[in-house]
Amino acid sequence: MSLFEWCQWLQHTHFATMIAESDWLFPLIEGSHILALPLSVGMVVIIDLRLLGIAFCGGPGTNFVRNLMRWSSIGFAVMFLTGGLLLITQAGKAYGNAFFRSKLLFLLLLGINAAAYQKLFYPRMAQWDSAGGPPAGAKFCAAFSLVLWIGVIVCGRTMAYQF
After folding, report:
1. Which of 59, 74, 132, 142 is exposed most, by the fewest CB atoms within 10 A?
2. What are phi and psi of 133, to 5 degrees?
3. Number of domains in the chain
4. 3-state secondary structure the chain
5. Measuring CA to CA, which residue among 53, 80, 36 is closest to residue 136?
């Protein structure tokens, strides 16, 4: 079975059809996906702006980032769950959609960027508070994150209009 055939099968399962044809379930899932955006990505944008020295620069960064990441993690869990549910209802259409594929590529790059930041820079964040700010590598991760999140959101919204 090819990936396209699997996507077609997934879209036509009873579970996917039940969600897609529901008068209230699909809009509830889609609305939850969109409403989780500020909780997940919004917190990351705030952290990125702080790392770049553009906003939210008062006080120690360690506690600030740790508190926002907790909320962001909840938002990402909701986004992942609802995004997966939305995907299964449109898997066949998503397969050939360039915006969906671009969104997945951006999400992959975001995951790599976040892993690099967490491994290379986050463990030494407490030292930045006394050293005068984050290193250039952390700032690069923040700027790259902002650009990629813009891409994810643009592709996600554009993709939705093509289904």
Report:
1. 132
2. 135, 170
3. 1
4. CCHHHHHHHHHCCHHHHHHHHCCCHHHHHHHHHHHHHHHHHHHHHHHHHHHCCCCCCCCCHHHHHHHHHHHHHHHHHHHHHHHHHHHHHCHHHHHCCHHHHHHHHHHHHHHHHHHHHHHHCHHHHHHHHHHCCCCHHHHHHHHHHHHHHHHHHHHHHHHHHHC
5. 53
Exposed, middle or buried: residue 79 (CB in 10 Å: 0-12, 13-18, 19+)? buried
Q: How far apart are CA 12 and CA 4, in angstroms?
A: 13
Domain span at residue 81?
Answer: 3-162
For residue range 120-162, what is the model confidence (pLDDT) as tens digits?
998 888 888 777 788 999 999 999 999 999 999 999 999 878 7
Q: Which residue has the tokens 């030292």?
A: 127
- Distance between start and end Cα atoms, the chain: 24
Considering the entire predicted model, what is its pTM? 0.88
Rounded distance, CA 76 to CA 6, Å? Answer: 26
